[in-house]
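User: My instructor asked us to take a sequence, write out its structure as tokens, and then describe one feature of it. I'm not sure where to start. Here is the sequence I was given:
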Amino acid sequence: LFESIQILMKSVVFQCLLLSIILYHSCFIRQYSFSYPKVIQIPYHIVPFNLSFLEKNERWIHHCRNKTIVRSIDYRQSLFSVILIIVNHHYSSFYNTSFFDDQYFPTFCSQFDSDFDYVFIGPKEDSVNQVLSNELPERGYYSYMSLNRVLDRFPRKDGYYYKGYFLINDDSCIDPHQLNAMNLSSSFTEGRISHPLSEWVWTRRKNERGIMFCDALSNATNKMRLKYPDYGECLELKNQMIGWSDAFYVHSRDVNSVSMMFEEMYSDLVFLEMAVPVVMNCLNAKVIPSCNHGCNKNRTSYHLHPVKYSSNENQIRCINRMLRMDSEWI
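Assistant: Let's start with the prediction itself. The structure tokens for your sequence are:
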């Protein structure tokens, strides 16, 4: 009898132990199962970003694919090989956007070898003409910040990872054939004019704070040398240059550094033609002179400026230049 009782007690203990293990395991699963959800493997060609966010911004971006303007694209396709052209408007007059949409970019698209998107940006937003706001004063003194505004509006973390960013003015005429022959895997800017302390007229003009632009540049670069010692040498006064900045190209490899330095320049209200050459020099960007302000338009160049498209004659000449049909502008 005693042995039977012992066997029965052992059986009860074992069953109790087994029950406690089951209960503990069940509790463990209930407590932690939500931390380890079942993972669905995403195919490599599907980019895991928020498509609804991209589609919301779709109406502001225009697309050229395979030499044709298209109304929409599949954002699951990579943008790594696509260039974003940013068209700066210095004033809140957007009369020429229809020319860009109907003639300029369709012609450029038909001749340019790379896929690209383009956006308009200016001092205020205009949903009718699809112009984004850069939240800057008119006249374009700080229009380099349009790059940063576009990066904020179309962030790379949300899938807008372009190959490069090409900033031009709304009075620029760009030559697709010249650009086809250029290396778009490196940043480049226009030719430099002179040293910041020269007698160039803009060095002595003042920003909205009443500070001369040459002093604003000095203030900004002095702060940046302390904040970013890796750029100390290129920011030294002896290495600073100024020059035309109505067209410049920033490769994706450099865009984080460029946008960071643009923020610093803008915090001191540094003028466009001082901020851009200094920053681009720090990134070892190539200097490729363009045809800007008073040059001979018969000279071959990837960029003509200024070309006022209020004139129908200038519209025709720019289009013909793109098509290599013009006898006056090469």
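For the description part of your assignment, you could build on this observation: The chain has ten helices and 14 strands. Try explaining in your own words what that tells you about the chain.
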